[in-house]
Amino acid sequence: MNVLMDKQTILIVDDVELNRAILAELFSDIYHILEAENGREALDILEKDIDQVVMVLLDIVMPVMDGFEVLQEMTDRKLIEQVPVILITSENSDRAALQGYQLGVSDIINKPFNPEVVKRRVANVIELFMHKSNLEKLVGKQIETLEKQANKLNQVNNFLIETLSTAVEFRNCESGQHIKRIRHTTQILLEAMSKEYPEYALSPYHIEKISSASAMHDIGKIAIPDYILNKPGKLTSEEFEIMKAHCIRGCEFLQSIHYAQDEEYFRFCYEICRHHHERWDGNGYPDRLKGDNIPIWAQVVSLADVYDALTSKRVYKNAYSHEKAVKMILGGECGVFNPKLLKVFIKVAPVLERDLASNEEIADTEFSVCSFVPAQEVQAKQEESGLSSRTLRLLELEREKYRILSELSGDIVFNYDTKSDVLEFSEKYYDLFHRDIRIPDARDTIERSEVIHPDDRSLFLKRLTELTPKFPSCRIELRMMVPDQGFQWFEVSVNALWNTETNVECVGYLGKLVNIHERKTEANLLRKQANMDSLTELDNRKRIRERLISLFEENKKEEGAFFFIDIDNFKAINDNLGHMFGDEILRYIASEIKRKVRSTDIVGRIGGDEFVAFLRNSSSEKAVAEKARDICDLFRNTYKELIDKYNVSCSVGISLFPRDGETYEELFHNADRALYYAKERGKNGYAFYNETMGNSDFKTVLTNVVDSYQLVK
Hints:
- The chain is built from 31 helices and 16 strands.
- By secondary structure, it is of the alpha/beta class.
- The chain has 5 domains: 2-163, Rossmann fold (3-Layer(aba) Sandwich); 172-357, Hypothetical protein af1432; 372-409; 411-522, 2-Layer Sandwich (Beta-Lactamase); 532-712, Reverse transcriptase/Diguanylate cyclase domain (Alpha-Beta Plaits).
- The protein has a 6-stranded antiparallel β-sheet with strand order 8-7-6-11-10-9, sandwiched between helices. Strands 2-1-3-4-5 form a 5-stranded parallel β-sheet, sandwiched between helices.
- A hairpin with a 3-residue loop joins strand 9 (473-482) and strand 10 (486-499).
- The radius of gyration is 38 Å and the shape is flat.
């Protein structure tokens, strides 16, 4: 006991209990540990026990009062002169370091850290600070030793009580069985409801999802103090109000989850969590919903929860018999329930009684939210690791929370450890790729992997090598082979973990895979639709303009010919043969123009019966003229009857690049003038632009459109 009392005291300030537990585990064999979960609590402890605390290990990001605010308060109260402070934080920017040192910290340790290095640095800072302390303070501490011992024992007792606090649904095996029983009872009630009342549309698919989501009904109790959760007697009105808040706190927890893929499952979780204490007559909480305003899945889970609470032993009561529980529920002693639900409850009551009487163990399924480990295995792990039960419990809790969040998000989560060269994925990786979720020798495996598209693999590995402590994260889109579906697009988000204590080195990666194939395919389709004429599947006016502007900027010396093509007397076809036949003619013209030019040339429909084409690397006017003549003859063989009856033909206006213009607008205008000239000469012909045509007042409709565009610009 004297050894414990002689230990120096370290105050650990961090809002995450797991972080506090890890640091406490690191120093508990040398120092006595005090803990605070926010800056305000830390200042209260320092005000009370400043003479006992030889070191403050302080996090920066915390609720109520953050680390920098604590340092400012300690400076204002002159506490910083009485106890050294070390910042332990994942914030590794120069700005944060400078601000910390300006506020008086003795050292800054970045996460992740080397435990032995941290222990040595803490010991050095304490030793140096103690040498700074004056003799009067040391003598004063000796005089007050006896009085302080009593306070110190109180702190030890408070600390021990605090360390016994646990997260509600992970506290003991009883709560875990409660979750499985709720899920089982919910499933039985839902199956009966679906048969009795088909109007609720409870399909087997929905029953499975709702049963799984029922496990989240009391997740908010993780925020309720243990002294209320485990109180053996009746709660006071104030305590009951705190207890009632677990519905809202659970929803806040669920709402903190982003980019959830399965929105329907998330909705079930949310509505069950929020409304499982509502009652049919409106006398429930938190929203006092009434009747069918309460989602049916929340009503079912509510009844399952009440039945299990009555038939199970709790800290405040013994278990009631099945008969008494049914009588209390039907008698309204636990609130008013949906009459239809009660009718179903009566029908399935024998099944529930049989399960209860035989003490049937509900088997785990793939959607169980709790994983149970035999006590012997837990003890063996604890002895092997040397960790306290508190730290093990918190680590298991964090792992379970991490698993639940990743399952809810619908994403594939992975982590890689550089030392062991092992890559591990969440279970959804196996569901999608049918491959092991644990990959040893990961470096070599990825370099020769057939899962990642060969064109993307080297880019992915290169991006990883470019990550630094200052820029530790990146997002990459790559293709991955999905069985029976081929390569699909995924977005990979990666965050590198760095050890900056000694030599800067990457110790691992955390990340997730998100399937974006459908989104990317839709985006490509929309992009294509935005740039394509839907009737002819040629480039539209917007796309033609963009492509030619880009071409002219990149190839200023390349010669070419711009064709403005118009169908003569096309209106007569629409008026006499109908627009559907007119559309057929337009599709025919489009395909013929495309067939008569090269694949490197650019062809598009400007609108109506007008087309454009740009023949690249065409410097010979004779060759250009022959191509124009071919286009003018498009109707000669296939639609000769149209020529005879409606005098249908094609006319072409030609401007040459760069002779007749160096921009899209100039070539368009000049080809338009040449087209007008060709039509004036009797149609069914072509004309090259020359400067004598520049004074023409005639403009086609689309020429006016281009002029309007120029004015807007």
